[in-house]
């Protein structure tokens, strides 16, 4: 089975709109870097757990994200949503899901509302026909 990775919504500081502001503020750049590292570390642990003992090292894979927002007002647009979790691609590579995170094909995000449990669910699937796959 393909790994399913469950994460909290990313911190607001990872939004590309916030990151643009970080260009002008050293303190905000530090917060962005720290938040990326922390979010990626959580994603790494979740990906390892989702894989169990089977490390995949796929050559190419798709990532479908399902975003569960507390309301429909605060949703990021699709491009910003994917950009906010870009650091997760690096974590999935470190976790052994894929050989190189540049070979992820990010699908358009799906949006839902769940006020009680906002979260991001990533479903990673091997792209068929990818040469050199070990799984």
Which key terms come to mind for this protein?
single chain; 135 residues; alpha/beta; 5-stranded mixed β-sheet; 5 strands; 36% helix
The helix tally amounts to 4
Major sheet attributes: 5 strands, mixed
Order of helices and strands: EHHEHHEEE
Determine Rg (CA atoms, Å): 15 Å
Strand percentage lies at: 15-25%
From the spread of the alpha carbons, the general shape counts as globular
Number of strands: 5
The class by helix and strand makeup works out as alpha/beta
Distance between the termini: 11 Å
Spans of at least 5 consecutive residues with low confidence: none
Average per-residue pLDDT, rounded, comes to: 87
Helix content: 25-40%
Give a verbal description of the structure:
Strands 1, 2, 3, 4 and 5 form a five-stranded mixed β-sheet that branches. The mean pLDDT is 87. The chain is an alpha/beta fold and 135 residues long. Helix 1 runs antiparallel to helix 2 (26-51) and helix 2 crosses helix 4 (86-94). The protein has helices spanning 16-22, 26-51, 78-84, 86-94; strands spanning 4-7, 61-69, 104-106, 110-113, 119-126. It is 36% helix and 21% strand. The termini are close together.
SSE layout:
Blueprint (H helix, E strand, L loop, with lengths): L3 E4 L8 H7 L3 H26 L9 E9 L8 H7 L1 H9 L9 E3 L3 E4 L5 E8 L9
Parallel strand pairs: 2-3, 2-4
Antiparallel strand pairs: 1-5, 2-5
Kindly summarize this structure in a few lines.
With 135 residues, this protein is of the alpha/beta class. It is built from four helices and five strands.
